[in-house]
Specification:
By secondary structure, the chain is α/β, with parallel strands linked by helices. It is built from eight helices and 14 strands. One of its GO terms (molecular function) is hydrolase activity, acting on ester bonds.
């Protein structure tokens, strides 16, 4: 049996009932800040340096063992897109989903720890406002907002799935070669990952982007977020971590558009970092055809990815949000 044939799941069941928290890392195999943070927290719980007061804490430090072993984002495909229990498993990530989706559904909430390709500070991503719509009906806005404000990051982003749905509509209008990859990236379900799946089961979910992949501070950001989440849920004593008292409220941003790379010849106009400001009409990049890609309005660029493949996300655009964290 190899390390890619199973998921290693660490669970701590408190002797007093309470919330059921799932913490995940390395959903993308080369994003390991959460993996390192969980390794230390697991050690501290085992050593009695931390005490679980109530509830159940489940840690999965490496959610995608194949991608992790290969030192890259994906094994056969992107696990954090089109996440659902497959009827027939067609690839490695489908086999993970058969285990991961029921595990997610057993919990009340998930803290999913990631990092990103470009430079930039850590930030959190939260779900939609409470709604009864078809795309992502939701009723846990208050919990996500309050918890996100405690994580210690200076920026919080909303609007993922609605923005992704907009990009998918454009993607579906383009011809594709009929391959499984092309079918997946144009599937209406493709924007659904760990957090969206958790919300579909009635739970709450937060994605924490802990910084650039190699940021030496990333594991500390992840560890502090896990501890503060446990304190927020009453699962850990407040003395275990310094309380978060921000000097100013986090900046709230709303994603509103996603632009795909169409050709490997598409190039950015400069080296962008997440949350760099853009002015209306500013050139963000140039298509292989020579066509300029212009910012439609004033705002920020998010997740600029020089390594993106044709037909997948090249960058996102965000603008200020009026959301109140409470």
């Amino acid at each position: 049996m190899t390390a890619t044939s199973h998921l290693r799941i660490h669970q701590f069941a408190g002797l007093t009932p309470g919330p059921r928290l799932l913490v995940t890392g390395a959903v993308h195999g080369n994003e390991v800040h959460g993996t390192q943070a969980m390794t230390e927290i697991i050690r501290q719980l085992d050593a009695g340096e931390l005490t679980l007061l109530r509830g159940t804490l489940t840690c999965v430090p490496i959610v995608n063992p194949l991608a992790h072993q290969l030192g890259r984002r994906e094994g056969d495909r992107n696990l954090n897109r089109n996440l659902r229990p497959p009827v027939i498993a067609q690839d490695y990530e489908d086999r993970i989903a058969r285990v991961l989706c029921p595990l997610i559904a057993q919990h009340d909430g998930i803290l999913d720890l990631h990092s990103f390709q470009g430079n930039g500070p850590a930030f959190a991503m939260i779900g939609p406002r409470n709604n009864t719509g078809e795309l992502e009906p939701f009723s846990q806005e208050a919990t996500e907002s309050a918890l996100a404000a405690q994580l210690g990051v200076g920026r919080i982003v909303e609007g993922w799935l609605s923005t992704y749905a907009l990009g998918l509509k454009r993607r579906q209008q383009r011809e594709h070669d009929g391959s499984r990859r092309a079918s997946l990236i144009s599937d209406p379900h493709y924007g659904v990952g760990t957090t969206e799946y958790m919300r579909s089961t009635g739970g709450w979910a937060i994605t924490l982007e802990c910084g650039q992949h190699l940021d030496p501070n990333g594991p500390s950001v992840a560890r502090l977020a896990i501890l503060r989440t446990l304190v927020f849920l009453g699962m850990l004593d407040e003395s275990a971590v310094e309380p978060h008292r921000p000097s100013q409220p986090p900046e709230m941003l709303q994603l509103y558009d996603v632009i795909d790379r169409e050709d490997m010849g598409d190039q950015f106009a400069r080296e962008w970092a997440s949350f760099d400001p853009v002015e209306k009409g500013q050139t963000i990049g140039t298509r292989a055809s020579g066509e300029a890609v212009l910012a439609p309005s004033e705002g920020r660029i998010v997740f600029p990815n020089v390594k993106s493949q044709p037909g997948t996300e090249w960058f996102y655009l965000a603008r200020p949000s009026d959301r109140q964290l409470g």
